[in-house]
Amino acid sequence: MTSPRKSRDARSLRPATQLIHGGTLRSRFEETSEALFLTQGYLYDTMEMAEARFKGDDPGFIYSRFANPTVSMFERRMALLEGAEAARATASGMAAVTASLMGQLKAGDHVVAARALFGSCLYVVEELLPRFGVESTLVEGTDLDAWRAAMRPNTKTAFLESPTNPTLEIIDIAAVADIMHDHGATLVVDNVFATPLLQHPMKLGADCVVYSATKHIDGQGRVLGGIILASEKFIADNIHNYLRQTGPCLSPFNAWTLLKSLETLPVRVEAQGRSAERIADFLAERPDVIRTLYPGRSDHPQAELARRQMSGGGTMLSFEVAGGKAAAFRAANALSIIGISNNLGDAKSLITHPETTTHQRLKPEQREALGIGPGLLRLSVGLEDVEDLIEDLAQALDKAAAPRRHAAE
Fold it and tell me: Which of 338, 328, 353 is nearest to 385 (CA)?
């Protein structure tokens, strides 16, 4: 499966090159595009070879629930990009989050998590883990003293996302990692909003990084996928057997699609980030927008930390429309280019209303504590011309504000 052609060590290459050439396994046909291996099982030359495979003495493939050549290419390429020793792909981002936690924990353990989490992640921490005897504590992610106070003798791991969904809070990953390590615990970071290009949690001390590859990594609204990245030891001790036995495996077709998407990831994220910055500046000047949240702006609550921890503001922003839910709905419904969808990281710009979609299962007081008000909209900036996007937002906001202006008159 490997070519005799000599090549540089992929670890010495820069990210854009790694995302095109890293991790490639070529068949004897020397194809230029990665091969798609739609197979469930594999043949062995002899029974002795089969025995060696199952014992782990032979490195070949056994069954595509365990590993598959196309999936392995995706894992190796992502590991290179993240600077991780190992990676395991999953069927979705939530499968990656669940496995990264469940694989480490047992009854009697304790987990600490930032309270600003995506709704499904919050479900795993608050409802799923306690069913198996794992206690959890939620803390204000930006308050380092709260992390310290939450630690217990049985704390095994911590979980956070930064920037958070949807208010784009920035949590000090390095500081939280130090707190965990001082107590013998690990840190898992959901890095989906920042992408593997703009933030490197493992370099900041995280033990494990997870992504919904459905988002920026695919970036074109086609397939689901997830990935877990960590050291060889972390994967071997906590993840490998859990995935092998429980089966949340990534399909080879999805892995192939994600491999092709990785080739354009730097170009997409850079262009989307430039547009997001322009749009954030535009929204911040609108009198009918109460607040604009974008990590790349100097008025972001954690702007200094964002500059230290991230190499760019990213593709995501949120803004609060004056007039609450009714005005937010009017604005979103009036958009002609930007689509209404709870997905993100897509080539198409997408907007959602977190209170009624991604975070609707939270209690009103929880949403209020997180800053998720009825007028808040989350915008994932795509690859359209930024002037068209600004014009679309301007006319939509004008229409949303019209009833309030008429009432004032």
Answer: 338
> Among 165, 268, 272, 164, which Cα is nearest to 218's?
268
Write down the pLDDT at residue 2. Answer: 47
Q: Which domains are delineated in the chain?
A: 10-37+68-262 (3.40.640.10), 266-408 (3.90.1150.10)
CB atoms within 10 A of CB 1: 13
Altogether, the residues listed in the chain come to a count of 409
Element (H, E) at 267: helix 265-284
Residue whose token pair is 């469930």: 40
Where do the H-state alpha helices sit in 15-68? 15-21, 47-55
Crossing angle for the helix pair 69-82 and 252-262, nearest 10 degrees? 40
> Would you state the pLDDT for residue 256?
98
Give the CA diameter of the chain.
86
- Where do we find the tokens 């954690």? 302
| pLDDT tens digits, 290-338 | 999 999 999 999 999 999 999 999 999 999 999 999 999 999 999 999 9
Using alpha carbons only, how large is the chain's radius of gyration in Å? Answer: 22
Please identify which residue in the block is written with the tokens 């689509």.
339
- In DSSP terms, 208 is beta-bridged to 188, 230
Number of neighbouring beta carbons within 10 Å of residue 44: 16
Number of Cβ within a 10 Å radius of residue 118: 22
pTM confidence score: 0.94
Q: What is the pLDDT of residues 115-129, one digit of tens each?
A: 999 989 999 999 999
Q: What is the DSSP letter of 113?
A: E
Q: CA–CA separation, 364 vs 175, rounded Å?
A: 30
- C-alpha 194/C-alpha 313 separation (Å) is 8
How many helices (H) and strands (E) would you count in the chain?
A: 17, 12
